[in-house]
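W.,

You were right to be curious about this one. When I first looked at the sequence I had no strong expectations either way, so I just let the prediction run and decided to look at it fresh. Below is the sequence, 503 residues in total, followed by the output.
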Amino acid sequence: MTAAAQQVEAISVLRRWAILVSITLATMQYAMAILVVSVVLPQMQGSLSATQDEIAWVMTFNILATAVMTPMSGWLAARFGRRQVMLGSMAGFTVATLFCGLATNLPLLVLFRIAQGAFGAPLIPLGQAVILDTFPKHQHGVATSVFGMAVVVGPVIGPIWGGWLAEDYGWQAAFYMFLPFGAIALAGLYAFLPDKSRPSGVTLDWTGFLSLSVAIICLQLLLSRGQRLDWFESPEIIIETVLALVAFHLFVVHSVTAHRPFLEPRLLLNRNFLIGLIIVAIYGMLNFTPMVLLPPMLQGLLGYPDSAIGIILGLRGAGAIGGFFAAIFISKIDPRIGISIGFLIQVASGLHMSSFDANATIIDVGLNSVLQGMAVGIIWVPLTVATFATLDDKFLDEASAVYHMLRNLGSAVFISLSVTIVIISTSANYAEMNEFISDFNKVLTLPWSLGAWNTDSGASLAALSSEMDRQAALIGYINAFKAYTIASLAVLPLIALVRIPKS
């Protein structure tokens, strides 16, 4: 029996499950907070006088901070120990959440959301590493399922509760609700989390860390601000593009040549892990994007209240729970089957969203939320199991950090791209519709052609313009949902490349 196996056996069954529950509670708080703002984005936009692309920063920069800090999880764990890092992360995350609720303007809110993402980043990768290290391999599927429910179902519970509180008490209440549960999670980690790893004097590869951080930050900035600044017509966008390319080139070259690089390139020699990184990046793209796009569409175009939007998004939870239980059994047969089924459901969900119109009912949107939840629930467990199945245990901390970094980076990038698609499509379609509103269009002279919308008065023209903007925006959202569908289809050929080790 190996030393690692002996350590696993030394932990009692009760202690093992107490560790799992404590970590799940902590990571659920963090996962909920990532997307709790999704349901209150329209309210926050009005309260803080922000544009659609500006208010999206509340989401994207939080995810971006997570993506930047996640790779540091491995070094932090080696330098200070897993227990100390997770306790510090949970405490810092809870304090940052408090200040998010106290923020009085958009820059402060974005700043505290960045702090929230940075402090919370180590919780999920280190929590996953602790669980995989605590449970024997034959229980990894069950343990990963319980843990995965925090990662996937958490962002669903947040909008439900947050939407209800925000409707009655304002968007700040969506942050305050986490404070007591953050304290409970911190107490649980302090009481049960073991400290098997001993802090070492390993130094941080600052060149690798800074070059990767600059590349990620510049990529996110150019995607978030490109539309507003007219892309490469702006010197800022050109500078950010050049910096991103140079920094990423430096990171790759340094990682290959350095003695102890920030991220070990040998990880990419593992076939399953490399393919898993690509798939989990696409998984991240699909997981969070609908929760950013749907709330403003449902409230701004279809007139849904915050509480109804929260319930709709919450239906993902019902689907996700069912998906997780299905994944436990599917993974025992072949993880590739579960991954394939999950992404095929994502394809169906994308096609369904692409068919939405101005008359979309709560049943239509709710059914789609259930489908999305089933998909992310079914995918997560077999994808995680397959990705780490052939990886040496000594790489767990670092590999888990990279795994979750790619998931978060995929989310941040695709959210920005999707918002850009919506804005560009809305503007283009409005301009196209506007060409038909002319005195030279003889159809408009017919009494039945416009009905209540006519060109005889300023009020009628304003009403007509408002409806045109509504229809143009809806087409923009549909185009973003089509991109979602294409991304879901693109991952399917990769699944066949996953290798399943013999038992």
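Here's what jumped out at me. The two ends are 17 Å apart (CA to CA). And, maybe more interesting for your project: The mean pLDDT is 81.

Coffee later to discuss?

I.
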